[in-house]
Task: inverse folding
């Protein structure tokens, strides 16, 4: 049996310090040294998963290949490491407690009193990655959400304390990410927040091996030694995490800080030179574009850009492939009206409408989709974006003035979008959508087929409504090509307008499969089309 080494990543002082990026970066650096890496996120919130959370509350809901609604950090993991995550990669307090309560109801505990210790902590430990089959060394990176001071985090931290004791400290390392704020008024970096955060951990019997200091300015002489002294770690285990312009620079920044070497030293494993040539080339293309396009993102959650994080990153990936900087113009669909369409989309090279739920802002999305169609602007519709594009087509080409989705207007006489048959009667909101990876068969000679380079594809989904098959014939007759269908031809998965330079919409979420060094074909093609549109306008 191969051995498993563990890297635990915790955070202190404040949230949003970039624990997920640090976890992803160390994973990338160890991968580049030949190690097999897996990565997990343990979230302290009591929700079963983020599927029912408002995007303003938690950013986007990321969907794994097996249909689990997960934290957005799993997107970082997949993009940095090039892996596919599953339900096992994201655990919440809600799932832990539900499992324990289900066991108690079945009598699995033999009538004993169920307690946080040992029952909850044992359940948490049971979810830590195990490697039972491979002969290779696996490294499991486990990120704990929230901060050390959160009461919800306590069982997870206690589980880590127990687990490290059980497996031996030579088989694990704990990285603590903290904030070292700069006070402009006094011109000083302050270490006290870091000291207090580490002391809180030490009070739980947990002693960090590495401290990563998030800072906006370089740590001045004496800061590392001061933190090392008060936090009881070697000075060369105090590392700075300066802000970088692009997320994908983070692993390279951590190379300079010797993060991987420190981790390997703690785990007592070899640390060969990393193979990062491809990653460096990708970052170079990102930082040194030869052209620039502007893409209008027409959404309903634009006040929190993390609500569209994977779409933003996929656009960036499409830009990398075309050595093009993609500037996003954020358009709030709720306030989009016919009178301001020309001004809103002036200078825009492409329009994208991402996913979402509910009726708010959908009329603006319909206007945007129709504007892109009429003005020959490259268009990409995703999930709700596809549905609103179909409604726009039905209203403005087919002449069905009240066409809509039955979700948004149950009384419409032309429900071109309606509920999926197997979704009828479902009452629970969470975990009940059509979720996960599903196949799609593309039409020969379609633009989609040309972009993907193959006939059968797979994409991840998160929806409850679909194109109403009663309207297939009239849509096709009037210029809307249903270019992608489920293998049984029951579900319309992708559409395009052949008479338009570049107009594609998909019921799937292709952004979830895009990687910085392996851009998704739709986003690569979309950015390329935006470039062509720009050239045509400038002739």
Result:
């Amino acid at each position: 049996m191969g051995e498993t080494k563990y890297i635990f990543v915790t955070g202190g002082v404040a949230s949003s310090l970039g624990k997920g990026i640090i976890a992803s970066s160390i994973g990338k650096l160890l991968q580049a040294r030949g190690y097999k890496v897996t990565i997990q996120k343990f979230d302290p919130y009591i929700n079963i998963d983020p599927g029912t959370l408002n995007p303003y509350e938690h950013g986007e809901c990321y969907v794994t290949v097996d249909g689990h609604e997960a934290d957005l950090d799993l997107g970082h993991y997949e993009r940095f490491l090039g892996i596919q995550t599953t339900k096992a990669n994201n655990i919440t307090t809600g799932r832990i407690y539900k499992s324990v309560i289900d066991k108690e109801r079945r009598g699995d505990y033999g009538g004993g009193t169920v307690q946080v210790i040992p029952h909850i902590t044992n359940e948490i430990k049971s979810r830590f990655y195990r490697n039972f089959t491979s002969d290779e060394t696996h490294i499991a990176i486990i990120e704990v959400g929230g901060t050390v001071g959160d009461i919800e985090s306590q069982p997870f931290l206690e589980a880590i304390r127990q687990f490290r004791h059980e497996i031996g400290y030579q088989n694990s390392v704990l990285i603590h990410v903290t904030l070292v704020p700069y006070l402009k008024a006094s011109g000083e970096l302050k270490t006290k927040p870091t000291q207090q955060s580490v002391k809180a951990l030490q009070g739980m019997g947990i002693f960090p091996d590495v401290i990563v200091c998030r800072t906006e300015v370089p740590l001045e002489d004496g800061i590392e030694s001061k933190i090392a002294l008060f936090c009881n770690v070697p000075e060369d285990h105090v590392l700075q995490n300066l802000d970088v312009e692009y997320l994908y620079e983070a692993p390279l920044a951590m190379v300079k800080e010797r993060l991987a070497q420190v981790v390997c030293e703690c785990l007592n494993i070899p640390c060969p030179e990393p193979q990062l040539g491809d990653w460096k080339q990708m970052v170079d293309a990102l930082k040194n574009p030869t052209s620039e396009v502007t893409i209008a993102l027409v959404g309903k959650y634009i006040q929190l850009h993390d609500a569209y994080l994977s779409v933003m990153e996929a656009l960036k990936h499409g830009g990398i492939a075309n050595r093009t900087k993609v500037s996003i113009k954020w358009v709030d669909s709720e306030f989009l009206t016919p009178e301001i369409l020309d001004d809103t989309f002036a200078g825009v090279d492409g329009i994208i409408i991402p996913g979402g739920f509910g009726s708010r802002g959908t009329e603006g999305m319909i206007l945007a989709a129709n504007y892109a169609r009429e003005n020959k602007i490259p268009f990409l519709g995703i999930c709700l974006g596809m549905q609103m594009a179909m409604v726009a087509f039905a209203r403005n080409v087919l002449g069905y003035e009240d066409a809509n989705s039955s979700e948004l207007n149950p009384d419409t006489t032309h429900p071109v979008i309606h509920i999926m048959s197997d979704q009828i009667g479902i009452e629970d909101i969470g975990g009940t959508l059509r979720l996960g990876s599903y196949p799609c068969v593309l039409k020969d000679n379609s633009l989609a087929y040309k972009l993907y380079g193959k006939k059968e594809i797979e994409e991840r989904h998160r929806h409850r409504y679909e194109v109403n098959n009663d309207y297939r014939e009239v849509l096709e007759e009037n210029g809307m090509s249903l270019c992608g269908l489920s293998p049984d031809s029951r579900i319309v998965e992708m559409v395009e307008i052949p008479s338009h330079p570049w107009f594609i919409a998909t019921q799937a979420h292709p952004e979830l499969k895009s990687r910085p060094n392996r851009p998704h074909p739709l986003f690569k093609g979309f950015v390329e089309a935006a470039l062509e549109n720009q050239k045509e306008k400038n002739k």
